[in-house]
Design brief:
- By secondary structure, the protein is an alpha+beta fold.
- About 50% of the residues lie in helices and about 15% in strands.
- Strands 2-1-8-9-5-4 form a six-stranded mixed sheet, covered by helices on one side. A four-stranded mixed sheet has the order 3-6-7-10.
- β1 and β2 (about 25-30) form a beta hairpin.
- The chain is globular.
Length: about 475
């Protein structure tokens, strides 16, 4: 095994020229780096590599570190947010494998050995990993073995002496074309008879038979200044197709053990929901700040109903921050010493944040007004004919310039009412599983029996037969 070697941003860019088959808007993209839209993601990811690069021969990326305590978890979250999506999905992939390994107590020893070896290799080579979980699913009312098309869930179609061949597709895979490995795991619990669909493995992005179709919310405007968030960086979603892809045994972490299929899905769900919850926390504060700033700019900050709406947004932001802190503080330590967040607080917090997100955005839109959608763009203010007039009429008083108010409106629109905003509305609900998934896990980890005993005690029935 070689010594750890960190990549520079340029080395990352060069690593993408490996023959991978990636598509965008009907065309095969041979050079991701120079593509006018997809190249932005390459640049953002490369910048993340350069930020953490250490030339020391034994250096390893802090983004690949396995947390060992609540403090480790707490310190890692802001680091990941600032490092970008590709760092986040890589970290989540590694923690998913570590969590799953700690829960597979009586599985084949080679499965755990392969997981540990893969993590060591990923850390040593400083790669980026995306997690592939959501299958095409076909008819949602049917299990995998009863689909009209048996490839509706990724499955093993051939077992060979030195590996397996898989076929199927994984959907909604953020950044799939921009990493090096595709961590492919079951999307749900499996039952006896569904052994072929109980497959967990890692597949190189450039493996023969892998094809990735990309979509993105990135703005298609010549001047991106009116898109202060999505115009800076975006992470395309991959529709990942496994068209008879060979996977060697050493990259297979689960093969036919149906009773462990759900372990991988639940492990990923936990870390995805922690990431989603932590993102909600930062975003909730941003929405509060924008609401207060735009209310002040509009001259409505002192109006009763506006103050009430902002107060409600503050309470929402505070409550979800409290669940994040509780999830970290009450973390558990697995058998290998890895820390993972508390299931109850993570799921309850993610549910509350996602279920109430639309109401918080509604308050923001109500406070900001229609100018969220109709404010002149920066180039309009630079036009000598209409620029001065745009400044005049977008201003609200002497100390609130029209261009400043317009920039607030552009930010609100980009975050909540345009392509990126629409992407956020859906992903805030669906990332890490929909609201129902969080309900199930919250109920499973809540002390319901303890609550019943408290109710019996307060009713004076604790000693009664019932």
């Amino acid at each position: 095994m070689g010594e750890p070697t960190m990549r520079t941003g340029q080395q990352y860019k060069e690593s993408l020229a490996d023959g991978r088959l990636t598509y965008f808007e009907g065309k095969q993209i041979d050079d991701l780096e120079t593509h006018p839209i997809l190249g932005q993601t390459v640049d953002a990811t490369a910048a993340g590599y350069d930020r953490f690069y250490d030339p020391a021969p034994d250096a390893s990326s802090p983004l690949m570190t396995v947390p060992r305590s609540a403090d480790d978890l707490r310190e890692m979250i802001p680091l990941l947010h600032s490092a970008g999506m590709m760092a986040h999905v890589t970290y989540t992939s590694i923690q998913t494998l570590k969590t799953a390994a700690g829960r597979m107590v009586d599985t084949k020893p080679e499965n755990i050995e392969r997981i540990d070896a893969f993590i060591d290799e990923a850390q040593r080579d400083d790669v980026r990993i995306t997690q592939c979980i959501t299958d095409a699913k076909g008819d949602r009312s049917r299990p995998p073995a009863r689909q009209d098309d048996l490839d509706s869930y990724v499955r093993v179609v051939d077992r060979q002496r030195d590996g397996v061949v898989i076929r199927g597709a994984k959907l909604h895979i953020t950044g799939a074309s921009f990493g090096h490995e595709l961590l492919t795991i079951p999307t749900k619990a499996m039952k006896p008879g569904e052994e072929d669909w109980s497959i967990g493995c890692s597949v190189p992005v450039n493996a023969p038979g892998v094809k990735i179709i990309n979509t993105t919310y990135a703005p298609r405007h010549e001047d991106p200044r009116a898109f202060p968030v999505s115009g800076e960086h975006h992470y395309p979603e991959g529709f990942v197709i496994f068209d008879d892809v060979f996977v060697p045994h050493e990259r297979v972490f689960l093969d036919g053990e149906t009773h462990y299929a759900a372990v991988f899905a639940h492990a990923l769900g936990l870390w995805e929901r922690l990431g989603g919850l932590s993102a909600f926390v930062e975003e909730a504060d941003e929405l509060v700040g924008l609401a207060q700033l735009v209310a002040e700019a509009n001259g409505t900050a002192g109006i009763g109903h506006v103050k009430e709406k902002i107060s409600e947004m503050i309470i929402h932001a505070t409550l979800i921050r409290a669940t994040l802190e509780a999830a970290i503080e009450h973390c558990s330590i697995g058998p290998e010493g890895a820390a993972f967040p508390n299931e109850l607080y993570t799921n309850a917090g993610k549910f509350h944040a996602a279920a109430n997100y639309s109401a918080m955005v509604r308050h923001l839109h109500d406070i900001a007004g229609g100018a969220v959608l109709t404010s002149p763009v920066p180039a309009d203010f630079e036009n000598p004919d209409v620029g001065p007039l745009a400044r005049k009429y977008m201003a609200t008083r002497a100390d609130v310039e029209g261009e400043y108010r317009a920039r607030l409106m552009h930010t609100i629109r980009d975050l909540t009412a345009d392509s990126y905003g629409g992407w956020k509305f859906v992903t805030n609900l669906q990332a890490g599983g929909g609201l129902y998934a969080q309900r199930i896990v919250t109920r499973r980890h809540y002390d319901l029996e303890g609550a019943k005993q408290k109710a019996l005690a307060v009713a004076g029935l604790a000693d009664a037969d019932h």
